[in-house]
């Protein structure tokens, strides 16, 4: 780490950061109130609100979002005429899953082998601490040069969309020139990374019917149209020989021009069995960040145990289609529906039902905000060049913010690098990453203010 006043302040604040993260991780703030008491989430929300007030934030409020949870908002005014930056994180967490699988208790922040273990330590309570550290470092060295809004969501992991709907109903609240989403992560520890693309997705339920009822396969099999067989044909039509996704009319030729994902590394990360090949074409980055990807999530058909010698009269499947940036999710849904209908054999009856959809996101990496972040990352990471990565999943709030504030640039950074094992047992955060990213965020705010 270079020595400059911001870096020195952040380094000196790390013990306090650890104490604060310990307090925050102790709240079992899973926003599923059938499983975890609401008071745990409320306690975490109060903790965030108190922390913002202590930093001099004004208008600090617990916002009741339409999904019955609370987001925490605060505003820290900067110099007159300064730009406004919105800092996002969420204080809710994934459930701990298999508690017995945790080496140390999930809600007790525990240091082990140079990492801090605990649910939410990286995703995304650590992101909140990162924001606080960055602001404190600036205050100690001349002040925060921009207006800062903080929004801490209370139900991100539930996907209930409370903050999205609240923001749509109160569009003035989160207006900003630039938005920093502190809920992504570096490609690897020590590789400064901004996530510049998120795939969107669509979910389609498909039902195929052929007969009024199941038939004996000995008596009727061979001529009776088999609905399960028809469905299997439909699902198979969604892939080329090499496993690439093939939806009629949907291009799968795009290239990812940012960071590349080494194939052997991907095999290790994905724990692919020896001798089994990857699917798709192009580089790994092309496949997971720039091209569509279909996955069959479920099939309704008789389980093997108890199966009878029958020709099936009906069968259902749930299909997920990940949609790359540049493709409209609604258009992709229409193409997928048309493909399924066109590839249903034997005149079988087919019905499709769309049950979910999210748009893809792509950042404008030529913007001044990106240049300001690249310079900041280079200082915080000892000269390392900032990398552009994609993320296979979607963050619906990104699309909401992008459509509410089309002028605002959105930067996704954070502590969820692969070793953090977010959403799994034994989640952890790297304190070095927390320190470097807090320095980077502080320097970004300063660079950006000067643009
Ligand atoms: Zn998260």
Automatic annotation (TrEMBL):
<dbReference type="GO" id="GO:0046872">
    <property type="term" value="F:metal ion binding"/>
</dbReference>
<keyword id="KW-0378">Hydrolase</keyword>
<keyword id="KW-0645">Protease</keyword>
<protein>
    <submittedName>
        <fullName>Dipeptidase</fullName>
    </submittedName>
</protein>
<dbReference type="InterPro" id="IPR051458">
    <property type="entry name" value="Cyt/Met_Dipeptidase"/>
</dbReference>
<dbReference type="Pfam" id="PF07687">
    <property type="entry name" value="M20_dimer"/>
</dbReference>
<dbReference type="Pfam" id="PF01546">
    <property type="entry name" value="Peptidase_M20"/>
</dbReference>
<keyword id="KW-0479">Metal-binding</keyword>
<dbReference type="GO" id="GO:0008233">
    <property type="term" value="F:peptidase activity"/>
</dbReference>
<dbReference type="InterPro" id="IPR002933">
    <property type="entry name" value="Peptidase_M20"/>
</dbReference>
<feature type="domain" description="Peptidase M20 dimerisation">
    <location>
        <begin position="204"/>
        <end position="347"/>
    </location>
</feature>
<dbReference type="InterPro" id="IPR011650">
    <property type="entry name" value="Peptidase_M20_dimer"/>
</dbReference>
<dbReference type="GO" id="GO:0006508">
    <property type="term" value="P:proteolysis"/>
</dbReference>
């Amino acid at each position: 780490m270079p020595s400059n006043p911001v870096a020195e302040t952040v380094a000196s604040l790390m013990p306090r950061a650890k104490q604060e993260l310990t307090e925050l991780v102790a709240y079992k703030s899973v926003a599923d109130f059938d499983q975890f008491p609401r008071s745990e989430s409320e306690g975490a929300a109060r903790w965030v609100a108190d922390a913002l007030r202590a930093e001099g934030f004004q208008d600090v409020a617990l916002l009741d979002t339409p999904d019955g949870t609370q987001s925490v908002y605060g505003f820290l005014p900067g110099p007159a005429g300064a730009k406004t930056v919105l800092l996002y994180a969420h204080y809710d967490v994934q459930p701990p899953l298999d508690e017995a699988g945790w080496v140390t208790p999930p809600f007790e922040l525990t240091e082990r082998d140079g990492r801090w273990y605990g649910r939410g330590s990286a995703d995304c309570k650590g992101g909140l601490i990162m924001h606080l550290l960055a602001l404190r470092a600036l205050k100690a060295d001349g002040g925060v040069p921009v207006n800062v809004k903080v929004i801490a969501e209370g139900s991100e992991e539930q996907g209930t969309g409370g903050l999205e709907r609240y923001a749509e109903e109160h569009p003035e609240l989160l207006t900003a020139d630039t938005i920093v989403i502190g809920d992504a992560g570096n490609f690897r520890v020590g590789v400064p990374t901004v996530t510049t693309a998120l795939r969107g997705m669509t979910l389609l339920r498909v039902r195929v019917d052929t007969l009024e009822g199941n038939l004996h396969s000995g008596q009727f099999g061979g001529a009776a149209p088999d609905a399960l067989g028809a469905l299997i044909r439909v699902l198979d039509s969604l892939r080329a020989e090499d496993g690439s996704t093939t939806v009629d009319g949907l291009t799968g030729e795009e290239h990812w021009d940012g960071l590349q994902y080494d194939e052997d590394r991907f095999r290790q990360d994905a724990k692919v069995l020896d001798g089994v090949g990857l699917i798709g074409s192009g580089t790994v980055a092309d496949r997971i960040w720039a091209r569509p990807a279909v996955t069959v999530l479920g099939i309704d058909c008789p389980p093997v145990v108890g199966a009878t010698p029958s020709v099936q009269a009906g069968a259902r499947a749930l299909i997920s289609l990940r949609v790359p940036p540049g493709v409209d999710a609604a258009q992709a849904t229409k193409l997928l529906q048309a493909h399924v209908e066109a590839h249903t054999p034997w005149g079988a009856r087919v019905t499709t039902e769309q049950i979910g959809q999210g748009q893809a996101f792509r950042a404008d990496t030529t913007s001044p905000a990106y240049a300001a972040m690249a310079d900041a990352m280079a200082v915080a990471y000892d000269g390392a060049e900032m990398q552009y990565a994609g993320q296979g999943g979607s963050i619906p709030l990104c699309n909401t913010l992008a459509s509410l504030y089309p002028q605002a640039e959105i930067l996704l950074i954070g502590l969820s690098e692969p070793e953090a094992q977010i959403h799994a047992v034994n989640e952890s955060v790297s304190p070095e990453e927390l320190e470097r990213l807090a320095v980077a965020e502080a320097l970004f705010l300063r660079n950006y203010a000067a643009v």
